[in-house]
Amino acid sequence: MLYLKELLIILILAIVVAGNLGDVAYDYREGASMTHIAMELSIAVLSVALISGLTFGVWRQSRSNAHLKKELASLSGSPGQGLPPALASARHELALVLKKQFEDWQLTQTEREVAMLLLKGLSFKEIAAVRDTMEKTVRQQASTIYKKAGVSGRHTFSAWFIEDLL
Question: Which residues are CB-contacts of 81 (< 8 A; sequence separation ≥ 6)?
Fold first, then answer.
């Protein structure tokens, strides 16, 4: 039920388009004014444009979520593919540091995934979409992560990892 709200809106707009087009055909046969027909056609065109925009947005978000899921699954500490060797090595070392710290904090696998997405800067809503869960669940998981890490929130959680590097 990831995009239920968006799909419901798309369905409603599709019904509006179908109803308007049916009404336009009926009004045309009955000899309605061209102003009236043009107004109803403009509503149908606007609805089609909104359907297209929403569909594209849902598709784009779905692709982004799939990419993030794939990236999250690959965070096993292996060096980045296609990166310059020094950057790939640094990324690998950071992954090892994160893994060790998450173990020290005794984060569950789910909490580790949420923590990685928090560090990447995703919002609770985006994390919920990537993980196919509710935003409220992600908020609760984040609170648990912060408590285990001994920090007060997202900013101090992220700063914990970069504070000594600067």
Answer: 88
d(CA 57, CA 67): 15
Alpha carbon distances (Å) from 120 to 72, 89, 145, 147: 10, 18, 15, 19
91 in Cβ contact with 79 (< 8 Å): yes
Q: Which two tokens stand for residue 159?
A: 């700063």
d(CA 63, CA 3): 13
Interacting residues of 14 by C-beta distance below 8 A, sequence separation 6+: 47, 51
List, for residues 99-152, the tens digit of each pLDDT value.
Answer: 999 999 999 999 999 999 999 888 998 898 888 889 999 999 999 999 999 999
CATH placement of domain 78-165: 3.40.50.2300
For residue 75, is pLDDT > 80? no
Q: Which two tokens stand for residue 117?
A: 């997405």
Cα separation values, 159 from 12, 29, 113, 115, 152, Å: 45, 68, 18, 13, 11
What is this structure's pTM?
A: 0.57
**Torsion sign (Cα): 52, 120, 149, 104:** positive
